[in-house]
Amino acid sequence: MQEAATSEATREYDVIVVGAGPVGENVAERTRAAGLRTVIVERELLGGECSFWACEPSKALLRPVVARADALRIPGLRAAAAGPLDVDAVLAHRDRMSSHWKDDSQVDWLDSVSVDLVRGHGRLDGPRRVAVRTAQGDTVHLTARHAVVLSTGTSAATPPIPGLDSVRPWTSREATTSDRAPGRLAVIGGGVVAVEMATAWQALGSQVTMLVLEDGLLQRMEPFAGEMVADGLREAGVDIRFATSVKHLTREGDTDGAVHITLANGEELEADEILLATGRAPRTSDVGLETVGLTPGDWLGVDDTFRVTAVPDGWLYAVGDVNRRALLTHQGKYQARIAGAVIGARAAGEPVDDSPWGAHAATADTAAVPQVVFTVPEAAAVGLTVQEAERTGRRVDVVDYDLARLAGAHQYGEGYRGRARMLVDPERGTVVGVTFVGPGVGELLHSATIAVAGEVPLERLWHAVPAFPTISEVWLRLLETHRG
């Protein structure tokens, strides 16, 4: 890898990638593997949000919590696991998993795949041009022969709450990197970040209050998923307030005073920290969109090969969260693999197969997006929900099963609670959606993803024999229930 010199000179590449999170890294690796000279631009740490402020640190915080919850159900382990978590050890583990917020290993990896690096803030500067302002104040000008790829991701969305700016709220970044557990943590929101961080910090010693505008958690999943996760949070001691909005916020003093929260109903609450978990916004406000006729701050609409549809000549691509198709790291990396292959094919003058499930089309973004929520219990889903099927006019057969009836569930200890739902297309006889809730269900999800993405006929699934006694036996029980 060559780290570009900081100068006013223009350097030409085949492909310029702006944003070096996992998505940008994967695009760059794929275009370089296709023989295209590639440079990647990053203003923060290589590895991006996922490695340093989201996936890695959050799961490092959550894994001890989930493991202890599992141990508390197991005879012989219950007494040993009954004490509080070692908070210092958990935070130290989180720091190691986040490489102590140093990206040396990521730089070494980039070097190993022969992708150049420019550190600094990259902005479009007209068609096929990117200007990078470095930390030293210099400007590096880059031009692309074939493609510019924006993979700048998202940041926390901030709701219009009076007084919000004055209280210095946590976002997901502060929630995953804090070096202490606040005594009282208020969480605004009811989505994935909200429930995962409530799970983690309650277990690490905070008293957590969730302020949820909607009437349930995890609104994009089946309703029973949010209900079961809410039950788990309440059992852990979290105070959940549904149909609740915040009217005003103030903080005592300049730095570490209590946050005073005024709710719309007039109730007053206090917290030591307040976490905003109210969605994500695209990082496109300062990437030069105006220089190519786009509106700064907008999500970037793309086709199934990730070309930005509003830009002529097909040179600009947007991959990962910034295109709003599926705000998940693994889905962004899937998009990156496809986009890299597309750019390579087009540069070589080869045909592009953008038919459904073709090599150059991201069909899974709409048909088979998997997600695991790492709470107690876990929630995992892929494909359609009942609500989505009804909204789009698709007819489905709904098959439910109580996971606690499985012999494999008993291996997870006493008091196992879980539920599975399978949605079947009655005309084609294929699985189009699956939701699992319960301990250990995250490891069931890939089998469900294969069934949905592969459009595996139910008749063939009968021949996929689950091992006994595991919770994967749920597949057999779902098929039996569907057959009646």
TrEMBL record:
Disulfide bonds join 50-55. GO terms for molecular function: dihydrolipoyl dehydrogenase (NADH) activity; flavin adenine dinucleotide binding. Its cofactor is FAD. Keywords: FAD, Flavoprotein, NAD, Nucleotide-binding. NAD(+) binds at residues 189-196, 279. Pfam families: Pyr_redox_2, Pyr_redox_dim. Gene3D superfamilies: 3.30.390.30, FAD/NAD(P)-binding domain. GO terms for biological process: 2-oxoglutarate metabolic process. It comes from the Bacteria. FAD binds at residues 59, 122, 321. Residues 369-475 form the Pyridine nucleotide-disulphide oxidoreductase dimerisation domain. Residues 13-331 form the FAD/NAD(P)-binding domain. Binds 1 FAD per subunit. Belongs to the class-I pyridine nucleotide-disulfide oxidoreductase family. This is Oxidoreductase. It comes from Streptomyces fructofermentans. The lineage of its organism: Bacteria, Bacillati, Actinomycetota, Actinomycetes, Kitasatosporales.
